[in-house]
Amino acid sequence: MLFNSHIFIFVFLPIALAGWFFLNGRKRYGLAQGFLVGMSLWFYAWMNPSHLWILLASCLIGYGLCEWMDRVRGTAAGKAVLAAGCFFHLGTLGYFKYSNFFLENVNAVLRTDFAMVSVILPVGISFYTFQQMAYLIDRWKGEEERCSLLDYLTFMLYFPQILQGPILLGKELIPQLHEEKRRQFDAQRFAEGIRLFVMGLAKKVLLADSLAKPVNFGYENVASLDSISAILLAAGYLTELYFDFSGYCDMAMGLGRMFGIEVAQNFDSPFKSASVKEFWRRWHITLGRFFTRYVYIPLGGSRRGKGRTILNTLIVFTLSGLWHGAAWTFVFWGFLHGIAVAFDSLGALRLPKKWMHQALTFVYVCLAFVFFRASTIGEGFAILRAMIVPKWNGFLFRMAEALDPSEFYVLTKAASLGAPALLPWINLILLLLLIGICAVVLAAQNAPAIVQEGVYSKKAAFLTACLFAWSVLGMTGVSTYLYFNF
Predict the structure, then answer these.
(1) Which residue among 35, 231, 333, 454 is the one 20 to 30 A from 403 at the CA level?
(2) Average pLDDT for residues 256-265, to the nearest whole number?
(3) 82 closest CA partner among 147, 142, 140
(4) Spatial CA neighbour of 40 closest among 192, 255, 308, 312
C-alpha cells in the first residue's frame, strides 16, 4: 500500500488511528500493539501477499537468533550465532536481490550459460534486512535491551517505515511503545503529524510526479538530447528523486507523530551542503549511519592514516551503491561519491565563498546521479557528452510537452485549438514555472523544521487543507516511489 493512494488515506489510516487510540484509551496496551502489528501486515501485504511470508519468516528467525545469542553471550557459540545471523540476513538479501546480477556477470566473464533465477524482489527487503542486522549486532554489543516478540515485530513491521525506511535502531523506537504519554491522543502532536504528512504528500504528488514526466521522456530519448535538455535532465532527475524520497520520509515522520511512535528524520536540506561529505550527512541519513557504524568504523574508520581512510571511504560508498541496486551503474555511482568524499576529507579545495562550494557540490552530485538513473554506464556518459557538446535541436520543447499538467488542461487545450504555434512556448513556460517552484521549495526550510517552529493559525490550517485537497486531486494515477524496489 502506498501513502499517496486513496485506499491508504481514506480507509486504512482512519481505521488504524481509530483502533490504536480506542484500545489505548481503554488501557488495552498489548492488544493495541497487536492491532498495530496486524494493520502493518495488511499494509505490507497489499502490495504482494506472497512477500508477507518472507517478511514474517525473516523477522521470526531474526528474533530467534537474538534470543539464542543472548543465552550463549560471551562464548564462542555466541559469536557463531552472531555470524550465522549476519549470514542469514545478508544471504536472504543476496538471494533475492543479487542472484541474477551475479549469474549475469559469471556468464559474461566465463562465457557460461547459467539460467537466471526466477525471483521477485520483496518490497522493502533492503531496509528491513539492515534494520534487523543493526539490532542483532547492537544486542551482541550490549547496546540494545532484550525485548518481547511483540515489541520486536512492532519495531520491524511498523508501517510508516517498513517500505523505505528510515532504517531505525531498536533503542529509538521500542522504548516509545511503553511511554504512557505516547499512548494517549495529543492534539498538538497530531496536528504536527498532519502538517508533516500533507507537506510530504505534496512533495511527492505535485512536485516529484510532475518532474517525472519530462525526466522519464528525456531518459527514454537519450540520443535526441541537446546541451540544455541534458543539463536540465540531470538536475531534474536529482530534484525529482529528492522530492520523491524526502516526501515519503516526511509522510513517514508525520504518520509516526500522529500515532505517537516517531521515526527518525532522514533528510536535512541536502542541497544546501557545501561538500559531498556534508551532502551524505544530510541525504538518507539513517543509511549513512548504518554504513558508518557497521562497516566504516569496523574497517578502521579514519584512525589508520589518510591512505586507509580513503580506502575505507571507497569501500563504504561502493557497497552503498550496490545496496541501492544490482547493477554496475549503482556501483559506479557509489564509487563516484566515494571519490568525492575522500577528496573532501583531504581538505584540498578552498573556495572564497560558501555558495561556491554549494554550487560545486550540487553540480557534482547531479552529474554522479546521472549514472544512478541511467540503464547502463555507457548511457550515463552519453548524457554527459550531450551536456558538453554544443547542440540545440529543440528537444527541450518535447520534454516540456511531456509535462502535460492537468491544472492547465484548459489553457493547453485552448492553445492547441486556437493558437497551435504558441503551444510549445506555453509548455516551456509551464516547465520553467515548475522548475522555479522547485527551486523556491529547495531554498526554503525543510518540512520538519517548519513544523518544529510550531506556528499555528487559521491561515496555516487553511493552507494545509488546500494543499491536501490539491494533492488528493492530483492523485489521478498513483505512482510508486523511486526507492520502492531498493
Answers:
(1) 333
(2) 95
(3) 140
(4) 255
How far is it, in rounded angstroms, from Cα 122 to Cα 124?
A: 6
Instruction: Please report the DSSP string for 331-352 in residue order.
Output: HHHHHHHHHHHHHHHHT----S
For residue 301, which phi and psi values (nearest 5 degrees)?
55, -130
**Is 324 tagged catalytic?**
yes
From 51, 284, 324, 357, active-site residue: 324
Cβ atoms 229, 395 nearer than 8 A: yes
The full length of the chain comes to 486
5 pLDDT band (50/70/90 cuts)?
Answer: very high
Taken in order 137, 309, 277, 214, the sign of the CA dihedral is negative
DSSP state of 146: -
CA dist 384 → 208, 211, 362 (Å): 23, 20, 15
Query: In whole angstroms, what is the distance from residue 281 CA to residue 266 CA?
Result: 10
Pick from 65, 43, 134, 58: nearest CA to 96: 58
Given a cut of 70, whether residue 477 has pLDDT beyond it is no
Cα–Cα distance for residue pair 392/284, rounded to 1 Å: 36
* Residue 164 contacts residue 124 (beta carbons within 8 Å): yes
Question: What contacts 230, CB < 8 A, 6 or more positions away?
Answer: 218, 383, 384, 386, 387
Output the CA–CA distances (angstroms, integers) from residue 116 to 88, 90, 93, 110, 122, in the order listed.
22, 20, 16, 15, 17
Would you say the pTM of this structure is higher than 0.70?
yes
What is the tally of helices (H) and strands (E) in the chain? 23, 0
CA 252 to chain centre: 11
Whether 116 contacts 131, CB under 8 Å: no
Residue type, 18: A
| DSSP codes, 350-364 | --SSHHHHHHHHHHH
Cα–Cα distances in angstroms (integers) from residue 284 to residues 14, 193, 425, in the given order? 29, 20, 37
pLDDT tens sequence across 91-115: 999 999 999 999 999 999 999 988 8
Residue 64: pLDDT above 70?
yes
pLDDT at 476 over 80: no
Kindly state the DSSP code that residue 272 receives in the 8-state scheme. Answer: G
Its sign, for the CA torsion 134, 136, 137, 139, is positive
Q: How far is residue 52 CA from its own chain's centroid?
A: 21
